[in-house]
Amino acid sequence: MLNTYKFIIAALTSLLLVTEEAGAQEITLQKLSVNGAFSAEMAPFVHDSTLYFVSNRKSSVLVNVLSQDDQPLYKLFRAAIDKSGKSGRVTPFEATSDQALTVGPMTMSKDGMTMITTLNKTTSLRQARQGSSQNRLSLYEAHKRGNDWQEFAEIPFAKGDFSITHPSLSADGNMLFFVSDKPGGEGGTDIYLSRKQAGGWSDPENLGSRINSAGNELFPFYHPSGKLYFSSDGHGGLGGTDIFYSIFDGQWSTPAALPAPLNSAHDDFSCFIYNDELSGIFASNRDGTDNLYHFAYQMAFCEEPAEVVEDNYCFTFFETGEFDKDSVPHRYRWEFSDGSHADGAEVDHCFPGPGLYEIALNVVDTITGEEQYSVANYELLLEKSKQVYFYAPPKLKPNETIILEAELTGFEDLDELQYFWDLGNQEERQIGKTIRHAFRRKGTYTIRCEAYWSGGQLCSYRKIVVE
Q: Which are the contacts of 245, defined by CB distance < 8 A and separation ≥ 6?
């Protein structure tokens, strides 16, 4: 059976506040008060200032159903929460409180009228405790009428001896991401995508090897910006399971890990990211058991960024010296170590990119083509400008979506490199090497992107006109 949950190891302490720097940008971590003293919490989802999460805490003083491992079963709980992470009293989620067995991660439509959650396929406690092959997890959908949730109906994906869990709906409700251990995948558990169509959901498609590794991919969260956040133990990172993100632009980008202290040497997984991407909630066992943490970036952008420049590797080479014109026909020949050459006292040449190039100026016989003598030899080192480079079209229309991708140039490889975007005129701020954005109003915007790494930072900008 798909092992989607972890079990408690030790009791936990109360509120913890940690502050670390990602370059010059601080990240604060706060352990949420909803965490139980003897339980595990994970899979956060926030809608309308309500936090929904999964926990194996006791939900009743008199009745406590245990799994075949003698652990309390996971159920859905809820609590009021504000964006700073301050939360209210925890109560069982009424829509799933009558479920006898496991209730797993859930997702909800933007209007709050549709919910998809993880339930056991069997309702038999005996089969569940025996680890029966029928005891698989699947996704179930329910709709709200008035204040009441209607009966759950299983989403009819392909049948088989495998589980389907960890749902995430796109903001428009047309895409459903989830996890399965179905045969034929890239690894242990993979992330799949189904699209809404007339009468239901399309056959699931595996997201492929860019996202899915030979390890386990879990807990997808599709952000309104177009980023797919997910957890994985197969893409490297800081250790254990880490949280990554990727963005689709014809194909999925190479997954990028979130920085420390969000990721750690322990298991960090299952996140909810607010729309501005400057704060969110995730689960981690860094303190010995699975707890929920709130994080927030304390953004501080530079005040004097440098404008992005386009590197130019084209030059004019010329020689002012003369040779005896009464002798046999001669000509200057410039030879470049990129494999090209040009004849004449003055020539134009474009190098293919940065690098160390050798340049030789010779005099050749124009009849035989043979070199007569060497005039000069020298080296030319071409380097990329030190900047945060990104391309943006000079003009756009309102609500036209663009993808911006940043690259720190002119430096050797740097560890834990992070990019932060300010899209100007109080539009919004985003985080990540690649972002997607649509400007809503006409105007001239200054887009700033800052790169941060251990011991350094750099900031560049471009202007864009929306008309």
A: 223, 227, 228, 229, 230, 255, 256, 258, 432
